[in-house]
Write a structure and sequence with these properties.
- The chain is mainly beta.
- The protein has no helices and eleven strands.
Length: 115
Amino acid sequence: VQLVESGGGLVQAGGSLRLSCAASGLTLHSYAMAWFRQAPGKDREFVASITWRSGGMTHYSDSVKGRFTIARDNNNVYLQMNSLKPEDTGVYYCNVRNVYNVDYWGQGTQVTVSS
């Protein structure tokens, strides 16, 4: 499985960004795709996820609920981020988990929100 993120950048508070993740090598054993983020000096944290089947059920962290939207299209997953805040700053990682609970990660894309 290979994951390549794009779409990060610098944006002012209140602005929007759309992250994309192109996945290859996915199989029927892939269970969910997700976005995580890591701010400087902090642990990596969950942002949002969407199941590969089962109607594409979504889950969000409380900190982004109502502002971020995760979606998938074939072998791509997207994260639409609106009303961005400085605390959303960090490296955003694309993740795929298979049914054996094995995780695959992309290289990350930097998101910086200025106040």
